[in-house]
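To fix ideas, we now present one chain and its tokenised fold:
***
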Amino acid sequence: MTPLYVDVHIIHSAPYSNLNRDRQGSPKTATYGGVPRPRLSSQHGRRHSRTHLEEALGTRAMRTRGTPLAVAKRLTTSGWDETTALAAAQMLILAADVKGLGLSDAGGTNALLFLPETAFDSLAEIADSQRDTLTKAAGAAAKAIADAKSKADTDKAKSNTDDTDADAGEEEEEEATETGPLAAAYKKIPAADRKKLQAAVLDVLRQRNASIAAYGRMLANEAGSTVPGAVQMAHSIATHAGPSQIDFFSAVDDLIHDAGEETGAGHMGDQRYTSATFYRYATLNIRELVDNLDGDTDTAHQVTEAFLRAFPLAIMPAKASGTAPHTIPHLIHIAVRTDRPVNLVGAFETPIPATANGYVPASLDALDAHAAAHARMLGTSRIADHAHVTLSDTEFTALGDRVDAVDDLITRVLDTVTKHTS
């Protein structure tokens, strides 16, 4: 089958802001073309575009360590006591028998699971269907934990040493008493019942919805749960060199100020910001998306439309209260290709120099010239269609037809995708 990709290229000027921070709170950066530049991580872009896509589609996928806690909450609502409900929900995770997937000290899983929001209800239904079995196992685990803690308290009372190694041993024993008895109690469930539980739980872990079909999922050592993402997103980098900028700030203590007792700030500090013109790129593999949706082309078209709105226009609200960085792209160029994705970031390997006109006009021209060079090298026979929408009055002939509005651009792309998938 002929490949089908939708490439989205964006030139987007962001004002003085901090849209994506590193662990020190500074704007993220990347070195490209030998110079440091502001950067927005792909994880950042995927998160914000995914939440907007889910809002448009009315369906959510949840990435969380709290699956057992969410399931337990549903069980208590239906009449389970809290302790038994949590133990039963945790035993469902053990039932999956996925190597490396276990329980954390906080009661959740030791790894993030990415599941349809409806999966929590499905897991609760499994627990309800096996309530007698799980309740009995939970009771045995609770008794074993209580007995082990009682023994540990007795041993501690008899001990007259404060040796560090002894303390470490006690901590290890306490941790073991929390996880070991639960697993031991679960293993005492008859093998036939455990096998049924495993099949039911794995079926839930393998569930997918439109969001997972688009963005993918990987659960180590459980190939049936892995979904290759139809969306690939690049880190967005500035088209030019640019350092972080330090903003010194102060805050007034209103009570002291009103009392006139002293002058000066109630608090002082500094924050890092940057401003940049970014090149942003993502590609959507339409064939992969349709496969992930089990051949449902109608839903695939809905996902495509939602993504084409979400990626260019999603608001990235980091530090928004102090910077209000709610700009829109200067240019959105979309190409539907029947060969392979093409990232045009090479247009900015040589950084755009600062001019009296800023960075945007030269960035737009560089993208147009680089797209023209690609067309000469690769030809245009594998471009099913391409077009662009822009705030600029300049003509960009290598970026396909100019259309007046984002809606017109998306409609055109969807028409082309429909022709190649019907």
Q: What stands out?
A: The CA atoms of residues 372 and 398 lie 5 Å apart. The chain has two domains: 5-59+212-219+225-421, 64-207. The radius of gyration is 28 Å. Residues 131-158 form the longest helix (28 residues).
